[in-house]
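Section 5: illustrative case.
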């Protein structure tokens, strides 16, 4: 566990006190007028607080504190964010504005159906559009994240086989898959069978044939896979699994590479989750709400969570259907993260079918441009031939062999260039992996800046490796112990206060 002095050091080295350490009792005051000034706010006396223990600060002190903190952070609005598998593209601000409208942000999920017809209509229409995009029959918009969607997908697989009286206990997952796939299958009670990739970076068909049996409940895979490669034998794969009576689950976190061009439903997938907080105008990453809708083929529709949003044509109204006897029940309170759904709906409508296709094309061209410029075999190489889709996985093995500088050192040094690093050491089947996903929103100039920085770091590794190994040196704090940072996080001032010596 990080001790108080280490935590204090991190805060002090940032020269940033906690907001709770600022201000004086009875000192400054900040005033923020409520929206709709003049409106009577009638809060019953018994519900009013008698006291409130929060720091007393003026408006400029608060604004400066949070602005300073925000500047210590990196976001897609400040720079290139090629974090592979996260699709950190720039999201148009108009979609945020729409999600912030009073009619969207200030309605309550307990309101009577009759008063939220617009919200129900947005969800109904979004569900239809996502079905069209994926080739699925029906969707549930409730899950909050990709992993949450995977878990729901696995529960649907379980319900499907239970209803058929079959006990299938195995879920097959390729070794290149995202870690959440293994966890979701395990949490739903399945035994995971791992199949290796072949020398083309795709699922090894012979190994799959050997793994598939009457015990197979599902094959879980993503296409393009986490190596950024399209699984071009997918039709043969889906036939193999279906012939054995199993289902195919599609991890749609990588949809950005094929949206508008190919549909998982047409590849033979029966269940699909999407990461709206990647492909559809909400940033992925810690903190904000996400959304991982799950779509299914017709034979699985009856098991979807309740409520299902339906449209009554006769009465011209949308309604919530809870009366579904085979439903697995609830997966989340109410209907999902509505703001994220609104952004996705606005994004799809504003892009149109052609726009979505163009986005996928540009994402793929950008990744291939980076691959072409960076995989020179001397510093970085690719382990699998051929064009990639939305992301490229480089290996820094040649650089490490020559200089001792690792993929981790390279990404840390990129921070000093003001760039967000790529994902590294994932997928684990590529030694010294650097997984770069530029997305469609970056210009050639931005990509060239990134290429120049990568080359500069590789050059520096040869002339001054110590400098690269000491990086980052230009950031608020230096190199952290990442394992401890995620296993023993200090996420709030209360946790930090608890460490204070008595
Ligand atoms: C391929 C893949 N699958 C699943 C997930 C899980 O998504 P989430 O982080 O929303 O749970 C991710 C996340 O990055 C991913 O890249």
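Designed sequence:
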């Amino acid at each position: 566990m990080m001790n108080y002095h280490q935590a204090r050091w991190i805060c002090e080295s940032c020269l940033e006190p906690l907001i709770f350490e600022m201000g004086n009792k009875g000192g400054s005051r900040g005033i923020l007028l409520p929206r709709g000034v003049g409106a009577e706010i009638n809060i019953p006396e018994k519900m009013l607080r008698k006291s409130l223990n929060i720091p007393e600060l003026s408006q400029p002190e608060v604004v400066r504190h949070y602005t300073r903190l925000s500047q210590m952070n990196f976001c897609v609005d400040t720079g290139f964010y090629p974090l592979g598998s996260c699709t950190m593209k720039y999201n148009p601000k108009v979609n945020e504005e729409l999600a912030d409208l009073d009619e969207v942000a200030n309605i309550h999920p307990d309101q009577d159906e009759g008063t939220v017809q617009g919200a129900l209509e947005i969800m109904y229409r979004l569900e239809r559009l996502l079905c069209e995009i994926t080739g699925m029959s029906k969707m549930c918009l409730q899950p909050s994240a990709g992993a949450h969607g995977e878990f729901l997908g696995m529960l649907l697989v379980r319900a499907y086989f239970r209803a058929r009286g079959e006990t299938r206990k195995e879920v097959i997952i390729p070794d290149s898959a995202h870690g959440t796939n293994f966890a979701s299958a395990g949490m739903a009670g399945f035994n995971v069978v791992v199949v290796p990739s072949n020398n083309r970076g795709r699922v090894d068909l012979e190994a799959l044939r050997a793994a598939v049996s009457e015990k197979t409940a599902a094959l879980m895979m993503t296409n393009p896979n986490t190596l950024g490669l399209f699984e071009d034998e997918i039709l043969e794969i889906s036939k193999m699994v279906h012939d054995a009576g199993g289902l195919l689950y599609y991890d749609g976190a990588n949809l950005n590479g094929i949206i508008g061009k190919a549909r998982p439903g047409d590849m033979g997938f029966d269940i699909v989750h999407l990461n709206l907080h990647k492909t559809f105008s909400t940033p992925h990453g810690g903190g904000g709400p996400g959304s991982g809708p799950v779509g299914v083929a017709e034979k699985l529709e009856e098991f979807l969570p309740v409520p299902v949003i339906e449209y009554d044509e006769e009465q011209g109204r949308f309604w919530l259907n809870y009366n579904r006897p085979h439903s697995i029940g609830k997966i989340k309170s109410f209907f999902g993260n509505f703001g994220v759904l609104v952004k996705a709906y606005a994004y799809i409508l504003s892009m149109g079918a052609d726009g979505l296709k163009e986005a996928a094309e540009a994402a793929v061209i950008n990744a291939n441009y980076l691959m072409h410029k960076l995989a020179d075999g001397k510093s970085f190489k690719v382990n699998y031939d051929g064009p990639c889709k939305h992301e490229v996985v480089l290996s820094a093995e040649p650089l490490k062999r020559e200089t001792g500088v690792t993929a981790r050192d390279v990404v840390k040094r990129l921070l000093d260039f003001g760039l967000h690093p790529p994902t590294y050491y994932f997928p684990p089947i590529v030694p010294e992996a650097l997984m770069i996903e530029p997305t469609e929103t970056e210009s050639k100039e931005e990509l060239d800046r990134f290429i120049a920085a990568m080359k500069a770091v590789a050059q520096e590794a040869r002339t001054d490796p110590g400098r690269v190994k000491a990086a980052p040196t230009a950031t608020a704090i230096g190199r952290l112990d990442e394992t401890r940072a995620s296993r023993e996080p200090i996420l709030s001032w209360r946790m930090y206060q608890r460490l204070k010596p008595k």
